Amino acid sequence: MSETSIDIQGVLDLLPHRYPFLMVDRIVDCLSETKCIAVKNVTINEPYVQGHFPGHPIMPGVLQLEAMAQVAGILTLKQADNAGKIAYFMAAEKVKWRKPVKPGDVLQIDIELLRARGKVAKAKGVCTVRGEVVSEAEITFTLAGNS
After folding, report:
1. What is the Cα–Cα distance from 135 to 132, expressed in whole angstroms?
2. Residues 90, 141: contact at Cβ < 8 Å?
3. What confidence tens digit (pLDDT) does each residue in 59-71 have?
4. Which of 13, 80, 91, 114 could form a disulfide with 140 if both were Cys (CB 3.0 to 4.6 A apart)?
5. Is-contact 108 128, C-beta < 8 A?
């Protein structure tokens, strides 16, 4: 992996989330301290597919929102000052779901840190599949020590 990408082991080192709630497979590129691109490979084996919806499986929009929050957390937690902390999701604004995400899709999650003051940060997330926007939101989160 390059200096700006993070494989699944690196993701696991940064986030406390685990299966079935880990919504990030890989950080493709952290373009700067304020921008990051990640992917989630959506498969038919996802635990939510069986019930959401039988015969027409799609990734729930709230899990796309969670994916945005996890990538925003990674973007912040990879900074040396935040090592060992946990990012707690506080709020979501301007949330829009535009198209369904189906098994076989690769969800690309683009995050831009809008501001960070003290322990609180805000980021804008946009999820795309094959270049088309499927969801977007502004996410607020706080950083806390891991104790």
Report:
1. 9
2. yes
3. 999 999 999 999 9
4. 91
5. yes
Size (the chain), residues = 147
Which residue do the tokens 């993701």 mark? 11
Whole-angstrom distance, CA of residue 101 vs CA of residue 48:
12
- For residues 108 and 23, the answer to whether their CB atoms sit within 8 Å is no
Residue of 110, 128, 123 lying closest to 42 (CA atoms):
128
Q: Could you list the active site residues?
A: 52
Sheet with strand 132-144: strands edge to edge? 26-29, 35-41, 106-117, 120-129, 132-144, 86-97
Which residues is 109 bridged to in the sheet?
Answer: 38, 127
One-letter identity of residue 11:
V
Q: How high is the pLDDT of residue 146?
A: 67
